[in-house]
Amino acid sequence: MDPVLENHTQTRNQPRPRPHRRPLIRIDDTRIDVTRMRLGVKTRVEQAIQGTFGRKYTVEFFGSTRYGVSHLDSDLDMVVIDPDAPEGWNHASSKPPHKISRKYLPAPIYNIRRLASCLSYAGFKISEHRISTSVPIVKFTDRITGLECDLNVNERLGIANSDLIKHYCDISPVLRPMLFSIKEWAKPLQLNSPSTPRVSASFSSYAFALMTIGFLQAQGQLPNLQANLPPLAAGEIPAIWTRKPHRRWEVRYRMEPGWTSPECRLDEVLQKWFHFWATFPYTEKCLDIRLGGIVDRVEREDQTSSVGNPIIVPDPFILTKNVSRDVSKKVVELFKEECVKQADKFSSS
After folding, report:
1. CATH fold of 29-155, please?
2. Taking Cα atoms as reference points, which of 185, 53, 78, 235 lies closest to residue 142?
3. Measured in whole angstroms, how far is the alpha carbon of residue 221 from the centre of its chain?
4. What is the pLDDT of residues 185-224, one digit of tens each?
5. Which residue numbers delimit the Poly(A) RNA polymerase mitochondrial-like central palm domain (predicted)?
6. Short-list 22, 17, 23, CA closest to 263
7. Which residues are bridge partners to 149 per DSSP?
């Protein structure tokens, strides 16, 4: 079975937690038809690419679709897989493809303009192609489903961090429904809008996933999958390249097939999440899932160049990255206020 369909089937078969008598947040079930619709888009994109650039290229999901937390209208993030570059963009130059002469590109597929033309010819509606960003992408709309899509070429770190989140979801029966609920709460408040035009940058779905995993680790309801890793043989380092910074990052984590998550009700753990972030000491602490939960802020402040940032949410693989770097103090204050309100609503019910 396709791993994405498997995610949805597993979630549907899990026992439903007892709901509130008066639900304050609708707990959205993962629906298999949503996944099938997205698989259809992926298939059409892959067919277009293979028809132009060769059958060796495939397309994979990353982001919330890959770990099974997609709403019906969620954007669709995809990556073209280059089998000749299993560690991602490992070009000798740190320059993005648009600054490298076409004759020196690893393959024509890395030419974002050509990729956009290929998709346009196949019937997709191109919104824009961003060639000068740290991760060049084509933004387009699938005319059949209306889904808005982002596509990059062989930036594999998105797959690695999505698979890490998926493994956390697989060992915690509350994590997927929590992420559904938090996104549904945050969207109308514009707290889940990292790149919406004319709206202050707020939290990405990826940031919320890390904030929720870290919260569950701090509560003793999730282990640290990046702790106590076995030693590697000489030269054996599973790693992926990023372009900015231009370096390799270790992407190992361990499985926990025997982990038994403590029993908890979804409504209770959501209330704790909102209270946790309403009262969190942002100026003193941060959550780092690579380190297993709450750590002193100063430990990560310099490493992530986040001195002065109102909140630090470290990436589990790119050790120098704060995934909430663009979130302003005003947005963090709004987030805290709304967390207080939501925690009070849970208490009053």
Report:
1. Beta Polymerase; domain 2 (3.30.460)
2. 78
3. 21
4. 999 999 998 877 777 889 999 999 999 999 999 999 999 9
5. 35-169
6. 17
7. 76, 140
